[in-house]
Write a structure and sequence with these properties.
Strand order of the largest sheet: 5-6-3-10-13-8
CATH class: Alpha Beta
Radius of gyration: 21 Å
Structural class: alpha+beta
Distance between the termini: 68 Å
Largest sheet: 6 strands, antiparallel
Order of helices and strands: EEEEEHEEEEEEHEEEEEEHEEHH
Helix content: 10-25%
Shape: globular
Length: 265
């Protein structure tokens, strides 16, 4: 038996996806601020401290629980969407950048998922959205996500978002996977997460892949993304105008191209 609200859903789109949640009367879904896309009229919105998963914890407890979210770079507040009418009603949430939305049924995943700190999109009410401390110093310093990641706990549906295409791997006991630190989206609670230095002087200095990679050891399930948002952002910055005009493509002829299309100064 689930203790979290039981919701139905549909995911639309390919590269810029949204998830539509179908609610029965008095069912609730909670979402990150800014994820909302549309809703039916009977669905009521309410801004709450934290995730609303713990009842009767008092004002101080609510503030403390919400304050932990600041450590992951998220807002103190979340938004709860409750179906206050009869029949079925729908509410939808959109992904913040190109990628995929991953539905995760925590009941069938041991009740806990650890994910990168900006991955959470929305979840059935009752799912706890907390913080996961990296216990190993090296993992915290060089693991790509710092000492703190998000943890999703409960027995309901949760939805996370990641960049590009998603690869799902099931690791057998003792099986080891080496991954670029930015490509780790989420993993189940039994997976051991560590980091390892890239071997070889040439690989380290000239490989262009950083000094460390993540080491995930099974058993458990792992989700990987092909396009971390940090990689996308750095590439955009690389091609962004540096002095108010566009970057000169082709160097010598770039300025001539600007004059031809009217962008010359």
């Amino acid at each position: 038996m689930r203790t979290n609200h039981e919701i139905d859903y549909r995911i639309f789109g390919e590269e810029m996806q949204c998830v539509e949640i179908e609610l029965d009367p008095q069912e609730t879904v909670v979402a990150e601020a800014g994820a909302f896309m549309y809703k039916d009229q009977p669905v009521q919105m309410q801004t709450i401290f934290g995730d609303g998963s713990k009842q009767n914890q008092g004002i101080f407890g609510s503030i403390l629980n919400a304050g932990k979210r600041l450590l992951t770079g998220e807002s103190l507040f979340m938004t709860a969407f409750t179906h206050g009418g009869s029949g079925k009603a729908r509410v939808a949430f959109a992904s913040p950048y190109p990628g995929k939305i991953i539905p995760m049924d925590l009941m069938h995943m041991g009740g806990k998922i650890v994910c990168q700190k900006d991955a959470f999109l929305c979840a059935a009410k009752g799912v706890s959205v907390g913080i996961e401390w990296q216990k190993k110093l090296g993992t915290g310093l060089f693991g790509g996500e710092g000492f703190i990641m998000q943890k999703l706990e409960g027995d309901g549906l949760a939805f996370v978002h990641a960049g590009g295409h998603i690869i799902e791997r099931t690791l057998q006991p003792g099986e080891v996977l080496h991954i670029d630190t930015g490509c780790v989206v989420a993993y189940t609670k039994d997976v051991d997460f560590d980091i390892q230095m890239v071997g070889g002087v040439r690989n380290t200095l000239f490989g262009g892949e950083g000094f460390f990679f993540a080491v995930l050891r099974g058993p458990g399930k792992v989700w990987l993304q092909t396009l971390p948002i940090s990689r996308l952002a750095s590439r955009i910055i690389q091609y962004a105008p540096q002095t108010g005009g566009r970057k000169e493509e082709g160097s010598l002829l770039g300025g001539l191209g600007n004059l031809i299309d009217g962008d010359g100064y």
